[in-house]
Amino acid sequence: MSQCVQSVQEFIQDSFVPMVAVLCSEDAEKVTRKNNLNFSELLRPFCRLTSEGHMRDPNNQMQVVKNLRISVNNVVTRPSVPTAGVHSPAQRRLLSEVVSACQPAEGGVANVITAGDYDLNISDRSVKASVPWYSDWRDTLTELSTSKHYTATTPWFEAYRESFLQSMPASDHEFLNHYLACLLVVSSSEAVPVEQFLKLSQEQHRIQHNGEYTNPKWFIPNTLKYYVLLHDMSQGEEQRADSVYEDMKQRYGSQGCYLLKINSRTAAAGTDEQIPDPWSQYLNKSSLQSQDQSEEPAPTPVVVNNTAVENNVGGAPEMDGHDSAENDGVSVNSLDNTHPLQLETAIDMPGSLDSLRAIAAETNTTTVYTGVAAGTSHGACLTLNDHNRLRLFIQEFTFRGLLPHIEKHIRQLNDQLVSRKGLSRSLFSVTKKLFGGGKVPEKSIAELKNTSGLLYHPEAPELQIRKMADLCFLVQHYELAYSCYHTAKKDFLSDQAMLYAAGALEMAAVSAFLQGGAPRPYPAHYMDTAIQTYRDVCKNKVLAERCALFSAEVLKSQAKYSDAATLLIKMTSEDSDLCSALLLEQAAHCFINMRNPMVRKFAFHMILAGHRFSKAGQKRHALRCYCQAMQVYKGKGWSLAEDHINFTIGRQSFTLRQPENAVSAFRHILTNDSQQTSTQQGAFLREYLYVYRNVPGVCEVALPQLPLPCINSSATRVYFGHERRLAEGEKQAATHVSLDQEFDRDLAAVWQDLEEQVVAAANRGVVPSTFYSTQCCLNSQTDNLHFPLAVVEEPIIVEVAFRNPLKVPLVLSDLSLLWKFTLKDFSRPQPQDVMVGDAVTISNEKEAIAPMTVQKDDIITTEVIPEFYMSPEETRVARLKLLPRQTGQLSILGLVYNLASTPSTGDSTINSNSFSQNQGPSATAGTSVRGRQDLEIQGPRLNQTKEEKTSVSHGPDRRLDPTITPPMPLLEVFFLQFPTALLCGEIRKAYVEFCNVSHVPLCGLRVASTHPDFFTFGSSSLATPLTPLSPTSFENCSAYKTLATPPGATPGSVTAVTLVSAADFGSGGGVFGTGGKRVAEIPLGEGTLTPGESTQLPLWLRGPDQEGVHEINFLFYYESAEKGGKISHRVLRHTVFICASRSLSVRATACRSNTLPEEEREEGRNGSMLVFVDVENINTSEAGVREFHIAQVSSSSKHWRLHKCINPAEDKDCKLTTRERGKLCFRATRCKPHEATSKSLEKYTFADLSLGNEQIISSTTPCADFFFRRCQPSESWRPLIAMETQGRHSRSQGAGPGGGAEDITGVVRKCNEVDLNIIVLWKAFVVEDNKQVILEGQLHVALQTIGKEACSLTQKEEAQEMVLLKFKPELPPPMTRPSMEQLSHLIKTNLHYPESYSHPFVQKSLCMVPVTLTLSNCSLAQVDAIIDLRHKTTSPESLEVHGSFTWLGQTQYKLQLRAQEVMRLPLRAGFLHAGVYNLGTPRVFAKLADQGAMCETSQQTATPALIIINST
């Protein structure tokens, strides 16, 4: 390691000194500012005591304190930024500037070390002594070796180490840098100085105890307050100051206050007298730090080659060649990401003397960071007597205030710890007893848990031991300090508080080293464990670095250079280049200070250090390291190492304004017989390009083919059309296709399917044979066999993928496309031979040679990219644009550009052409070459015929050969008020704006979607008013058409019945086929959209039925009003993502009414049934929904309609909050015959049952639209398919006698069929931005069968359905017989009996009551029925409630009922006691005639038939 000025003991002692804070009044600051100093700066040169101090330890033994230094600082309450174990950018800049400012002196005394056979010059003169072209290098080394100075000093490392230790923030696990005392300074000129002292004391108390500030940190709660009265001798009255001081002594005691007299002379007087200035050396060291702290915020680090530069001081890149300390801190070289022994590729340096002379002609601006304005003097008002007073003040404060204060607290802490631990003697007296025994085996770091975040209470015994240890260490009582650290270490390890344990280990090792007398062996393993814990467990690299610096110094003092070097090398990392460079340099010095010097290891590590210096922007230090290493490598035949070192020396010399050395180094590399491989020779690309550039006439005839960068031709993408226009205001533009989207083959198939559907819809259901799907973006995965079609006046964007194979950056400038173009007029068809003969081919190759010439913009406008930067080994794409102005055939040939190996002046790398930040030419003005690369894309391999399979042949890829067609319309679509989140089933009204931004009118506007049930543009056949009719809906901006409920209408009764055809809403099948339901025509005013015209249309949206995020694709199709073009149509894509939240869950069940057909006919109803609707609020208030209101229930069917709501509650309005459920009961009747028309035009009957004060007309847009889109397909074709498949299977399986199973199934199904759709319309009250918003929506439930519950689709059921569909066989299993559930609905039963019956049981014990059982056949077939009266209730509960009775007479009947026949069966029931009885015990079994299966009717579960028997 290098020789240091201080001894190791002095260095460690000065690293940990007592900290004293200063609080000054304003007047006191004015007094000190006369000397251009504040109070802490005024005291700084006098803070080291020249005499010994004395204090007693807890055992009353006298301890001598020698050479003590205290640290006095102003109180800074600015909260510190948490560093997380690493330096902040401000601290990094500070350290970089400190190292930059400390350089070896030019022309100083030679610093030479003799190591083995080498005489190593360790000074700045080694630059001249080591270069191979320096002719007298051997004589120079001989001359230097005769010098008497053989020590190698590195003052920059010492400066770095000092600044590093000073900039360390105070931490909670140690107290060494916490403040022990506070100086309260008040001027004697104050009116009432005592009041000022009181204010400062209160301020100090507030800062320490109110918890507002994390900094500064205080050692103990009872901080020593020392009161200083500052008297200005040049102004104030000395007598008054003395009287105030006497009062202070009475108030604070003579030990706690001091009268300091300064400014004995005025600044103007005594200019002849030379007063020493001891402050300069201290202020220069701290000036950078103070400047750095004032810079807020810190500049963003410049990133070069993916490496952040830590030393960017000015925030702007450095001007190359400026020989200044500032630039050493900020410049970045192009070797940042390369290995130090690997030759770089395309290094950013010219090999030309002309460029070197151009740089040499620049003005050399030097900036020196001194931190103080030039010519500023310090202490101008102070005399030598004042200096002595300051020195005496520090001594008095320390001996009479600080040391007694520390001594008192050491005793207090010792007494507390002894009492807490139950010891009878002090720690010091039982040291041997506690620590002299056998050693306890310690756990390894790997075994300990990471508990670095453990925090102790401030009054914890473990922290009290640590406080006592730190106090003893600060006053040089190292033996007691070691004992306390050792004790604390064990406590912390037992608690696994690893940060605290590491700190105790570190200080225990240092205390052991510093103990005098019988030397205790230095516990190096303590330091190793502490370093490992700091770095690996606590992740605090700053503390690990501090620990390593101490340990290395100690090892060096013990001549353990090998261990020190190993430790220093281990501490290097990628986090800080500057720190790693300094540690590697010190490790290299360790190798040559060993008993047997390891010179080659020294040289190797100096190379590593130079590389890290270079990455850190320290060019001077990097050059020095390489030059020192060159002394070992030169002349040994290691050409690769020499090439690397010489190249780096030349680059750094050029940057540091040493052109002679730089020119010689580059010449040596170029003329040397290099043994580099072809890849490594790319390091000289910059020089070769410069030479190539200056050869006249090369680029004037034709453009040469350039080898760099590599182009991945197959990855070339071509985009046709304008880029997406940014939306304005609330408008949301259609997403369409862009180059920023990645190609998805599955998604492309979806878009192609949508386009096929909409093209078929536009061409009467047939897809033309010449149809090709529209491809706006061509890539390697698209079909490129055909010539793509582009439109004139619409740009063509070509995306080219570049790859830089080198490890140095490349710059391409004036980058553009090469093309050739053949003019063709597609508006006038001509014979093929005439067109070929008249074809005129135009190219831009000649214009591309000189980019400043006039281009052929009237044919094709070619975009030029001024500069394209590529980082080392970067893959990057460039997007180049062509704008065709005429029709014809275009072929894109390749690219033309200027290639340079250096970036422009905006980057923080070396650039030979940058004169300054503001006035430098671009990289193309220097060493750059203009050339071309062709784009040759290989098509897909052909593999169809036998010849193609046996040979390797490729088809064409025509993505770069577009045909430019005549103008076409261009549509832009914007969405207004389009939501991103909806409730399930919520109806929202939005608007769509269609803009024709071309010069051609468009027509035939259609839209296809993957979710046709998500939106509707409304019905074109029905006149739907856009303005709501009821005042309430108008206030709430309802999306529905509503009417006010008539005044006399009863809530829950039918308010409207409407007949609607499905064809009116685009759901009638039509000519669109199976895909027609996905395509909708968009109505335009006059059928066309003229150029520049825009129109807005309403768009109704309905939230998906399943919760979650839904991706919904829209494909807008349009044609040109001018037919006959090469492009038949165009499309525009749009993708939206809708987040659906839960709303309501609706379940519905249909039950057959018990009324007989005769009663229904009497009431005027043609069949009736009961419909139960169960509505549950499953919303979890995630969208701010307060409650749901069921506003209306509507029905839609061809056969049934809702008649009225028969809920017993008077309040028909159903309100549901979260997780509430409501049940509604409705009576449904069959539609009257006159309500349906002929079979060919079957219409749906819509019936509305309003539960509120307004009626929503469900038969109009948007309610009917979403109903037909949601429910109609499932009704129309799914049951039909099911019946057909069942019929086929029935015939294949065979049927029994008396008729086929198909007929039986049909009869039973028709008996149980309902085919009724329920539409539940709801309103949700939502709170948004403290305002209530009403949302509307509708849910659909399709009732198919009596007794079978139907529900709105839920997520769980949908997932199950998907799984079933996935694994479903091609044909469903055969259903030869109707199910038991279906058979149970064949017969409807009813009991007729008197509600009460009186009988004299005293006179006659048996009471007989006549009962009539009415049987009604509900089917259209003959049914066999069995009535069993022998069944008795076996439930004990039923017996207790209803009692027991018996049926008299015949107990079993077998009857046969014809189709829809009603039969009455007289029965008699016998009772023995009075009471309440349940007559509903007869069991009725039914089956179709000639079938074997019997089934009990479902009416057994009905309400009990209760009769009351009275006794008279």
Automatic annotation (TrEMBL):
Segments forming domain TPPC8 first Ig-like: 740-983
Domain TPPC8 second Ig-like per the UniProt entry, residue ranges: 984-1132
Coiled-coil region: none
Sequence ranges assigned to domain TPPC8 C-terminal Ig-like in this UniProt record: 1386-1488
Chain positions covered by the region annotation Disordered: 907-960
Biased composition (Polar residues): 907-927
GO cellular component terms listed in the entry, alphabetical order: TRAPPIII protein complex
Domain TPPC8 third Ig-like span(s) in chain numbering: 1135-1341
InterPro entries: Ig_TPPC8_1st, Ig_TPPC8_2nd, Ig_TPPC8_3rd, Ig_TPPC8_C, TPR-like_helical_dom_sf, TRAPP_III_complex_Trs85
Composition bias type Basic and acidic residues, residue spans: 944-960
A Pfam family this chain is assigned to: Ig_TPPC8_3rd
The protein's name in its UniProt record: Trafficking protein particle complex subunit 8 isoform X1
Gene: trappc8
